[in-house]
C-alpha cells in the first residue's frame, strides 16, 4: 500500500484501496509480487520499490496492477516485475498473460516492449476524477 499510495496519480482513479487489495488477496488465485530497489525479494525489513498484483486462471494469468515508486522509475524495476510475473505464469502452465490499461497510459511502451499486443478495447471503461471517460485497452502476450 505504501507503493500504491505514491505510484498512482489520483486523477486517473486507478489505485486500489487497502480493502480492495485485501479482498483480492483473500481469493485463492490472486497474488502479489513485491521487489526492493535492486529487484530482489523483500527481506530484512527492506522497503518495497514496486509491486504487481496478479490473478491466475486455468491456462492464463492476468496482471491486475503494477506500480513502481516514482523516485525508483526508469531503472528496469517495472520490466523486471513483468518478466517475473511471466515466469510465474509459465511455471503454472499458462499459455497467455493479459493486462488492461487506460487508453492514454504511457506504460503502453513498456508493455509493448515486453511483448504484449493489443487485442481489444472497452469503450469509456474508466472515468477520471474530473468526469472524463477513457477507453480500456486489453493486451495479451503469448508465453
Ligand atoms: C509503469 C511503471 C510501473 C513502469 O515502471 P519503471 O520501473 O519505470 O519501468 P522500467 O524502468 O522497467 O521501464 C522499462 C521501459 O519502459 C519505458 N517506460 C516505463 N514507464 C514509462 C512511462 N510512464 N512513460 C514512458 N516510458 C515508460 C521506459 O522508458 C523503459 O524503456 P527502456 O527499457 O527502453 O529504457 C511506472 O511508470 C508506474 O508505476 N507508473 C504509475 C502506475 C501505472 O500507471 N501503472 C500501470 C497501470 S496499472
Automatic annotation (TrEMBL):
Pfam family name, one: Acetyltransf_1
Residues in N-acetyltransferase domain copies: 1-143
Annotated TM spans: none
Signal peptide: none
Enzyme Commission number: 2.3.1.-
Keywords (A to Z) from UniProt: Acyltransferase, Transferase
SUPFAM superfamilies: Acyl-CoA N-acyltransferases (Nat)
Domain of life, source organism: Bacteria
Enzyme class: transferase
GO molecular function: acyltransferase activity
PANTHER family per record: ACETYLTRANSFERASE (PTHR43420), ACETYLTRANSFERASE YPEA (PTHR43420:SF44)
Name of the protein: GNAT family N-acetyltransferase
Biological source species: Qipengyuania mesophila
Amino acid at each position: 500500500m505504501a507503493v500504491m499510495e505514491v505510484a498512482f496519480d489520483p486523477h486517473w482513479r486507478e489505485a486500489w484501496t487497502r480493502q480492495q487489495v485485501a479482498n483480492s488477496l483473500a481469493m485463492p488465485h490472486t497474488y502479489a509480487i513485491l521487489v526492493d530497489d535492486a529487484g530482489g525479494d523483500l527481506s530484512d525489513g527492506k522497503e518495497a520499490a514496486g509491486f504487481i498484483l496478479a490473478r491466475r486462471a486455468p491456462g492464463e494469468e492476468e496482471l491486475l496492477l503494477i506500480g513502481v515508486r516514482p523516485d525508483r522509475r526508469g531503472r528496469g524495476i517495472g520490466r523486471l516485475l513483468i518478466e517475473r510475473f511471466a515466469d510465474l505464469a509459465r511455471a503454472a502452465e499458462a499459455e497467455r498473460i493479459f493486462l488492461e490499461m487506460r487508453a492514454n497510459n504511457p506504460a503502453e511502451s513498456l508493455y509493448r516492449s515486453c511483448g504484449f499486443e493489443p487485442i481489444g478495447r472497452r469503450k469509456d471503461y474508466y472515468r477520471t476524477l474530473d468526469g472524463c471517460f477513457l477507453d480500456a485497452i486489453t493486451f495479451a502476450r503469448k508465453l
